[in-house]
Design goal:
The structure holds two protein chains of two kinds. Chain A is of the alpha+beta class. Chain A is built from 22 helices and 20 strands. A five-stranded mixed β-sheet of chain A has the order 2-1-5-13-14. Classes of the chains: A alpha+beta, B alpha+beta. At the A-B interface, helix 1, helix 4, helix 5, helix 12 and strand 14 of A face helix 4 and helix 5 of B.
């Protein structure tokens, strides 16, 4: 018994020693740890002083704030929101001093005795400390440091200051930081006007902004709202009846992105451009003022036109509604509108829904343009081969020999051949066999050279089929390239940023709107004249049928198996390209198996957009160079049209190309210049 | 101690457990715990201590990191803006186009008002100026009132000049080749040397009276081509003693060095004459030279050709 007692006594003193050492160790650890604790800024409001980078539209409207915070004092926040936050996150906030003892005990008991349940005991002050200084790594050391900083914050600042800092920096998801921004994003109103149900919904989001994102998971967010309301009732801020009534109240969320200019894809382009020039840190932390080229009204119309066009396409393609958010199951679209005389991008849509997919099809989606590429071929043919729009070629089956490979045998879209016709008619009806003969005559490098002069920058393969658009290009490139025709051969680089200033308004850069002549004005006009007929009597007459009647020119494009449908067209002031297709490159066919062409898929979107964009605008004609003469010719033979013959087709000829037609009018055998085959 | 080892006898244990010190200590401990629960004194002490040592602690953590990024970003932007402002200030204060050009590095640009550009343009030798842009075009742009600013951008191969409308749309753009830019740079040179010190002039140095006599013999158009702005020579203080013609032509111009004596000091003012006009004068001078060799002797034979 004595031995037993001796052991007991030894254990007792050993225990005392251990406790003593542990206490000393803790003291040392405390003093060592606090030496490396982060300094707390004075004043606390300094945490939200980062100036935001502001992006403006061409109209002066602010499109976006990057970085920074929209901060509000507590008295500009709805009291029910403050109650909701406190009830949910830390209901003893007003009474504790950074640590909620009872909650710690409760959390300990729950974590120890209820397996599978993890309960935290972080107070609002601790959460603030964590958000300001620490990573989200779960370690005891981080927790201890966070606790220490929370105690300091409590010792130094009033509860109202702590709460104000907290609600102005917490993340609510979808890029909303702070209650004011969140209130505007989700409900389109200032935080002061939040109702009880709205406040409860918002207060529930910080726990997991992605999981409870009401735009995507509304029911989940509603469940969380119920938890918040119940907590408010439990704590005593509201009665159970009020909580129930608030839960039953209908919540009206603002549509995602509503009210804000719908230029998400455009802003992505601007940001990428800015980051390449200035670096990410400058863009996100220096508080730049960026003045862009975006026209918010045009952009809104562009978005509407693309979305409504794609909905119609869904119906034609019978895409089942059940595919829901699976973006790859729906056809996608892109639209770019470029101001012809400057290259300024006025509207840009990179897909049907930026929230669904940020992949920007207006820039990143290098898809084959098909016949949409033919204007570059025709320009090269008119310039290099001395041809004119009345030159006659024969639409027939052709085989273009390719050294070391099997011959290239392009097929017409209709599968049929019409025999002789003038070049203008061949372009208007997009005859592939004649395009193949042209590229065979001038060579693919001449086509590529012409495309480069139009401003196409994507890689182009030097093969004959390049003339039929087998190398990928982007809608932005196409819109900018066709703008060179609208300006009579002056090429402008497309751009999105007009001016950048620092936060105090000093100019860092401003865009000089210069162009360079890369195309012959007269040949460019001849091409414009040919492309006008595409809308008036060719593959894009749907544009006229849909009510767009102003002078315009363009070209449709459809790739093999109907994977891509394009229409790029322009007026003298605006050049617009529309693309539609599946991201996965699937064929677009309607219920009867008929393919979706540029005329069916893209041109209606173009027409819808242009009708709105030019509403009330004066009628402006393309400038006709002084050496251009118009002649009516037989579209089959290329001879001058006779009153008793078939209906003539008007062609634009340069003065030097009139000779043959003068001789025809003299009664001699017609021999249109520069024809082939 | 013996009695404590006897566990059957609990009395000694109970005496110890229920001793007065224990009864005094327990309430103290309980009071401490209760007061901590109620008053949070432990948190307050720790908090107060941390507030006291706050200034000694490092600026670490996410918020400070963000602050540093903000500061670095602002400094970077500030430098960009300051550099640009410096160029603009220099451009605003420049008295000659050369001053604008020499202050720019390749890739940098400066914005001038249309009025300022016109002033600088007028100081350029007419030959170079006409090569840049016709004065009649400038007159037209001025009268149309659309031209408000000019943007000058130094490039690797010269200078690009953009005449701009108020919305920065380019009315006219033109390139000034590097050779012409170099010529502009040399134009205003006034060296404190004599003509013999300038290698390219050593072969053709003429007494002033002979040079100007030959010049007077040329038609007015040739004289203007040779000395586009004679008023500059009228402005100089001192006596023009000799004139040299450079062996080198640059961008269609040949340097003409005018040596000026004021007291014991000699200076050379460099002018740029159009090459065709200089050639005519040279022929004339060299013709006279061959005549004069017989009469005036070798002391006047400055040209050794």
């Amino acid at each position: 018994m004595t031995v037993w007692f001796s052991w007991l006594r030894a254990a007792f003193y050993a225990g005392l020693l251990v406790i003593g050492l542990a206490t000393a160790g803790l003291m040392i650890a405390f003093f060592v740890t606090v030496r490396d604790l982060p300094r707390v800024p004075e004043p606390l409001s300094r945490i939200i002083e980062t100036p935001p980078t502001e992006i403006y539209a061409a109209t002066g409207e602010r499109l976006m704030l990057i970085g920074g915070r929209e901060t509000v004092p507590l008295n500009r926040v709805s009291p029910v929101f403050i109650q909701a936050v406190i009830a949910t996150e830390d209901h003893r906030f007003w009474s504790h001093h950074g640590i909620d003892h009872l909650r710690i005990v409760k959390a300990l008991l729950v974590n120890l005795f209820q397996s599978g349940r993890v309960e935290g005991a972080s107070t609002i002050t601790q959460q603030l400390a964590k958000n300001l200084f620490f990573s989200f790594q779960r370690t005891y050391q981080r927790k201890f440091r966070e606790l220490a900083v929370a105690l300091q914050i409590e010792a130094r600042y009033a509860k109202s200051e702590i709460l104000e800092a907290y609600i102005n920096q917490i993340a609510f998801g979808v890029g909303a930081h702070g209650v004011e921004q969140a209130s505007r994003v989700f409900f389109g109103k200032p935080a002061l006007q939040l109702s009880l149900p709205e406040a409860a919904l918002l207060a529930g989001l910080p726990k997991s902004p992605t999981r409870y994102n009401p735009f995507r998971h509304f029911e989940r967010a509603r469940e969380r709202q119920k938890v918040v309301l119940d907590r408010m009732a439990t704590v005593g801020y509201i009665s159970a009846g009020e909580a129930e009534r608030a839960y039953q109240e209908r919540l009206t969320l603002r549509a995602p992105g509503a009210g804000a200019p719908s230029g998400d894809y455009f802003i992505d382009v601007v940001l990428k451009d800015l980051e390449e020039r200035y670096g990410s840190d400058v863009v996100h932390h220096a508080g730049l003022k960026v003045f862009t080229t975006l026209d918010p009204q045009l952009q809104a119309w562009a978005v509407e036109s693309v979305q409504s066009g794609l909905v119609k396409l869904d119906q034609v393609l019978r895409v089942p509604a059940a595919v829901g958010g699976d973006s790859s199951a729906h056809p996608q679209g892109a639209l770019v509108a470029v101001e012809a005389h400057s290259g300024a991008v006025r509207a840009l849509v990179g897909g049907r829904d930026h929230a669904e997919t940020e992949f920007n099809r207006a820039l990143q989606n290098n898809r084959q343009p098909g016949s949409g590429f033919k204007p570059f071929l025709y320009y090269a043919a008119l310039e290099k081969a001395g041809l004119n729009p009345a030159a006659v070629f024969v639409d027939r089956k052709v085989a273009i020999p390719i050294p070391g490979q099997t011959a290239w045998v392009p097929r017409n879209f209709s599968g049929e051949h019409e025999g002789p016709m003038i070049l203008k008619r061949a372009l208007v009806h997009s005859v592939n066999s004649i395009a193949a003969q042209l590229v065979d005559r001038i060579g693919p490098n001449a086509v590529i050279d012409a495309a480069r002069r139009f401003g196409i920058k994507s890689p182009l393969a030097p093969v004959p089929s390049v003339a039929l658009g087998t190398s990928g290009v982007s809608p932005l490139e196409m819109a900018a390239a066709f703008a060179s025709l609208a300006t009579g051969g002056i090429q402008h680089e497309p751009f999105t940023i007009r001016r950048v200033e620092d936060s105090s308004g000093r100019i860092l850069e401003e865009r000089i709107l210069s162009g360079r002549r890369t195309l012959d004005a007269s040949i460019a006009y001849q091409l414009v004249d040919m492309m006008r007929a595409v809308l008036d009597e060719g593959t894009a007459t749907v544009v006229r049928q849909l009510g767009f009647q102003l002078p315009a020119a363009g070209k449709t494009g459809t790739t093999d198996d109907f994977n891509d449908a394009w229409f790029t067209g322009f007026t003298p002031t605006l050049s617009v390209c529309v693309w539609v297709g599946f991201d996965r490159g699937m064929s677009m066919r309607d219920g009867q198996g008929r393919g979706i062409t540029g005329s069916r898929g893209a041109a209606p979107i173009w027409a819808d957009f242009m009708r709105r964009a030019t509403e009330g605008a004066p009628r402006r004609e393309f400038v006709v160079p002084s050496d251009i003469r118009f002649v009516q010719v037989n579209p089959v033979s290329g001879h001058p049209a006779m009153p008793w013959g078939p209906r003539g087709m008007e062609v634009a000829l340069r003065e030097g190309q009139l000779g043959a037609f003068v001789s025809v009018s003299d009664g001699r055998e017609p021999s249109p210049t520069g024809g082939g085959n | 101690m013996q009695e404590l080892t006897d566990i059957k006898n609990l009395r000694p244990w109970s005496v110890r457990v229920f001793a007065a010190p224990v009864f005094m200590l327990a309430p103290v401990l309980l009071a401490l715990i209760a007061s901590e629960m109620k008053l949070n004194w432990a948190e307050r002490i720790v908090g107060a201590y941390l507030v006291a040592v706050n200034e000694d602690r490092p600026e670490s953590g996410a918020i400070w990191e963000k602050g540093r990024k903000t500061q670095a970003a602002r400094m970077a932007v500030d430098k960009l803006a300051s550099d640009r402002e410096a160029h603009q200030r220099m451009a605003r204060n420049a008295g000659t186009l050369n001053e604008v050009v020499s202050a720019l590095a390749p890739g940098q640009g400066a914005m001038l008002s249309a009025e300022h550009f016109r002033e600088l343009y007028q100081k350029i030798p007419s030959g170079i100026a006409a090569e840049m842009i016709s004065p009649f075009d400038l007159l037209r742009f001025t009268s149309e009132k659309r031209w408000t600013r000019a943007y000058l951008e130094k490039t690797a191969d010269g200078l690009m000049v953009y005449l701009l409308e108020p919305n920065n749309q380019v009315l006219r753009q033109f390139r000034v080749p590097a050779a012409s830019v170099a010529l502009l740079a040399r134009r205003s040179d006034m060296t404190s040397q004599s003509l013999e010190d300038l290698v390219s002039f050593q072969n053709r140095i003429y007494p002033a009276e002979r040079f100007f006599a030959a010049l007077a013999a040329l038609p007015e158009e040739d004289r203007r081509g040779l000395i586009p702005q004679p008023e500059r020579l009228l402005d100089v203080s001192g006596q023009i003693t000799r004139v040299g013609i450079s062996d080198e032509a640059l961008a269609g111009f040949v340097d003409v060095g005018v040596e000026i004596q004021s007291g014991a000091q000699r200076r050379v003012l460099l002018l740029q004459g159009q090459d065709w006009a200089v050639w005519r004068l040279r022929s004339l001078l060299e013709g006279k030279l061959s005549k004069s060799r017989g009469g005036k002797g070798s002391q006047e034979a400055y040209s050794a050709q």
